[in-house]
Amino acid sequence: MQVPARFEYERASSVPHALALLERYGPESRVIAGGHSLIPMMKLRLARPDVLIDINGLEELSFLGVEDDVLVIGALVRHAQFLADPAVGRYFPIFHDAERVIADPVVRNRGTVGGSLCQADPSEDLSAAFAAVRATAVIQGPGGVREVPIRRFHRGPYETAVEPGELLVRLRVPIRPGAASAYEKVERRAGDWPVAAAGAQLRLDGGVIAEAGIGLTAVGAEHFAAPEAEEYLAGKAPGAEAFAEAGRIAAANCAPRADQRGPAAYKRHLAGELVRRALTRAAGRAAEGTAQGAGDRTGDRRGEG
Amino acid sequence: MQITVTVNGQPYTGDVEPRLLLVHFLRDGLGLTGTHWGCDTSNCGACVVHVDGTPVKSCTALAVMCDGHEVTTVEGLERDGDLDAVQKGFAECHGLQCGFCTPGMMLTARWLLDRDPDPDEARIREAVSGQLCRCTGYENIVRAVRWAARHEAARAGAGTEARAGTGDGAAGGTREGTGP
Lengths: 305, 180
Ligand SMILES: Cc1cc2nc3c(=O)[nH]c(=O)nc-3n(C[C@H](O)[C@H](O)[C@H](O)COP(=O)(O)OP(=O)(O)OC[C@H]3O[C@@H](n4cnc5c(N)ncnc54)[C@H](O)[C@@H]3O)c2cc1C
Ligand code: FES
Ligand code: FES
What we know:
The complex is a heterodimer of chains A (about 300) and B (about 180). Chain A has 3 domains: about 10-55, Uridine Diphospho-n-acetylenolpyruvylglucosamine Reductase, domain 2 (2-Layer Sandwich), CATH 3.30.43; about 60-175, Uridine Diphospho-n-acetylenolpyruvylglucosamine Reductase, domain 3; about 180-290, CO dehydrogenase flavoprotein, C-terminal domain (Enolase-like, domain 1). Helix content of chain A is about 35%, strand content about 25%. Chain A is built from 11 helices and 13 strands. Chain B has about 180 residues and is α+β, with helices and mostly antiparallel strands. Bound molecules: flavin-adenine dinucleotide and FE2/S2 (inorganic) cluster (FES) (2 copies).
């Protein structure tokens, strides 16, 4: 029977209250959101916080919507809510693709977007998806609010830019007219963590790629991104050859490690192939007109499109 | 720490350690052993209960986090001595063998039917994809949920009955679709 070590429990009633509790209890206190990463770690005694600060009551962190051409995602938005939201599906099918294959529906009822990013597991799916769309993390602390580009948010395995005493409060993702996106993952069985996964966003302008965003997870890509492949694509015409080359570049620049999910060479192969597939699917969506700002089409609800 | 949790419509107030998991609060504290405790690692779904109407793996939730909330366990599915349609479906369609996964399966099925009264096979399989059955197999579990959907539609009126019928066809003809 796995039981966490003893701890004290406090329930925050607002963001300032949560920050005051973090300040009062210091570095041995820990925020709990969905608890679906933290509770398992506490049960295995890999984490032993003295105090848990429950932020589940903070409705101000559950906001999800579009404000001035920016998709705003509160840190406490559950995976299930993120997956079901029509605006998210319309503007960022990449999140829809990713959420459909993160854990299972019951876990998705509980786990949060903010918790996933703060957990900073090297195989976290959303880290790659947010890297691909170049999101901004909004962090609040005793000194106020600051913004950190997502590609500077993750500092290493299980390490983020959120300092002790601070909270991740929301994510902001700019909606870029004409951009389309997709996410591709290979897992050993339904609901499992990725063996490897890639996300891509393409913005086309006059028949060429104006900007590409590529995210990678579980393959040791720094900051969950593939900047060399993105640079290669800029200014190129979208197409099979360019996408395959971008995949090769991304694969050459990541650093997968062998583990129970597979040998390094296989993961490197997957990195390249999944980048190619994600780019191809994103380009297909751009052509179909399911790109951002392309009218009221809600896109494919279940991803068959 | 003192908490009040409404379980199956009845408020319970008690003193618990913050580290007490919801599954143990229900089983050991309240004697509600219908909630099963399996993998202990949020993978098998034997421990699924509803918290405020939503299925949650109770081995990965703290009892203190449910203070002021409503929990429904398998014991709460039955109403006034009448089994829920999902429970009847599992009995009718041989949806269980050893019964270990069954409470969790039924609670997730109930939630699915509350949101989608006419789910096709793919929807049902996706809904329970975080729950493992190691002996019955999923075929009969899917049939049991379809049975419940059909019977609830029939009870709701003739119009919806017809819809339940076409639903089966659209799902690629789950065989029991032509049944009662
Ligand atoms: C069975 C299972 C399968 C899974 N499969 C996948 C998968 O396939 N892909 C995938 O990507 N993930 C998977 N996950 C992980 C899951 O998506 C997330 O890691 C989990 O939901 C974390 O979110 P949470 O809200 O539960 O975080 P918690 O466990 O509550 O917190 C995680 C960490 O983040 C910190 N934290 C949380 N919120 C904040 C905040 N607002 N500000 C600052 N710090 C914060 C906590 O202190 C803690 O250190 C799986 C999890 C389970 C249990
Ligand atoms: S015991 Fe909770 S998921 Fe297995
Ligand atoms: S009935 Fe035995 S595990 Fe499902």
